[in-house]
Amino acid sequence: AYGLPAMTTTLTLYRWHEGEPPSEVPLGSVTLDGTDVNVPAFGGRVICDGWHVVVSDLPMNDPVSGEPYVYSVDQSDYPLIYTETFSVQDDMHWVFTNTFDKTTVEVFKKYEQTTERPPVTIVLFQNGVEFYRFELDGLLDGSDESGEPYEKQAGLLILPNLPTRTLNGDAAVYTVTELIPENYPYQRVITGNATDGFLITNTKNTG
User: Which of 122, 152, 120, 123 is nearest to 139 (CA)?
Assistant: First the structure.
């Protein structure tokens, strides 16, 4: 719903002789997007089953000197809305976990001094930049299970699965506003915050 980037990542392989400082010169890189791959790379083969990657046929020793090799893998170029953790087992198995840290913002719209409920457009901003628009029309649709923004009850907008960081990796700060149509006879007041929820109150002009 929010136009977030697809998950991609680049794995880079390094190799050096045992007992030497780790090499800063990569042996090669491969970019992954979750699709199956079986291609030659790094002097061996890269076989991807979704996000499970096997690099096979790599030499264990230098073919000239006979010295044993040490290998290392690094991950880069993944969307910064994800948090990376990794572990290494037996110097052979690298596990990279990219976690999508998310939050939910609720916006409640109420009217004062009127029974009319005209549709309005709610605009969500992330760090001051427009991020998403939703029309509140009083029609209940969607569910928590959908993972998509929806109107849970008349005037209550649920915005789930919002990234807690921007694409630059900065902490995401969410604010909202309401687009008021021309000749809209209401005064608007917005209170609250992204953590506790926003309240938009429209009071009809009676004067």
Answer: 152
- pLDDT of 70-114, one tens digit each? 999 999 999 999 999 999 887 778 899 999 999 999 999 988 888
Within 13 Å, how many C-alpha atoms sit on residue 108's CB side?
8
* 76: β partners: 10
Distance CA 62, CA 84 (A): 32
Confidence of residue 143 (pLDDT cuts 50, 70, 90): confident
Name the phi and psi angles at 145, rounded to 5.
-70, -25
Sign of CA pseudo-dihedral 109, 112, 115, 121: negative
Q: Which long-range contacts (CB under 8 A, 24 or more apart) does 140-149 make?
A: 148/1, 149/1
Gap between the Cα atoms of 62 and 114, Å rounded: 82
Strand order through the sheet with 129-136: 129-136, 120-126, 174-179
Model pTM score: 0.83
Contact 51, 35 (CB under 8 A): no
Q: 21, 7, 190: which is closest to 107 by C-alpha?
A: 190
